[in-house]
Amino acid sequence: MHSAIIPPAYIEDERLRVSLYRRIAETVFVKEVRALRQTFRDRFGPLPAECERLLKLAEIRILASERKIKSVEVEDGKIMLKRQGDYMMQSGRFPRLAGSSADAILDALRRHIRQLT
């Protein structure tokens, strides 16, 4: 299992971690997530993979919301997005993911959602 967290070893202070989780949850623009990513690097050093995944998930949430997508799922290598109660398909099929690692899947989801109108 691949975590999407702020590891305690990266930021030891629990209150600060909770505050940063809140800031991530409150982001509404991708540029805010990018700014947070830079803040993390400046204050705490290079981001651990778990923290990078958390920020990628925030970007996916925002990109999906901007495109009125209510649900983002990945099942059996298929991207299953739901908008207005219906699944979004391409030529009657769900788009497929190329990667299999958690990071590759998150990157592919971001790219795919970015391309949607």
The number of helical runs is 4
Following the backbone from N to C, one meets helices and strands in this order, namely: HHHEEEH
**CATH fold title:** Aspartate Aminotransferase, domain 1
Tally of domains = 1
Q: Which range best describes the helical content: under 10%, 10-25%, 25-40%, 40-55%, 55-70% or over 70%?
A: 40-55%
How big a fraction of the residues is strand? 5-15%
Description of the molecule:
The structure is a single chain. By secondary structure, this protein is an alpha+beta fold. It has one domain (14-115): Alpha-Beta Complex (Aspartate Aminotransferase, domain 1). Helix content is 51%, strand content 14%. It has helices at 14-26, 30-44, 49-66, 102-115; strands at 69-75, 78-83, 86-88. Strands 1-2-3 form a three-stranded antiparallel beta sheet, covered by helices on one side. The mean pLDDT is 94.
Annotation keywords:
117 residues, alpha+beta, Aspartate Aminotransferase, domain 1, 3-stranded antiparallel beta sheet, 4 helices, 3 strands, elongated
Layout: helices, strands, pairs:
Layout: H1 14-26, H2 30-44, H3 49-66, E1 69-75, E2 78-83, E3 86-88, H4 102-115
Antiparallel strand pairs: 1-2, 2-3
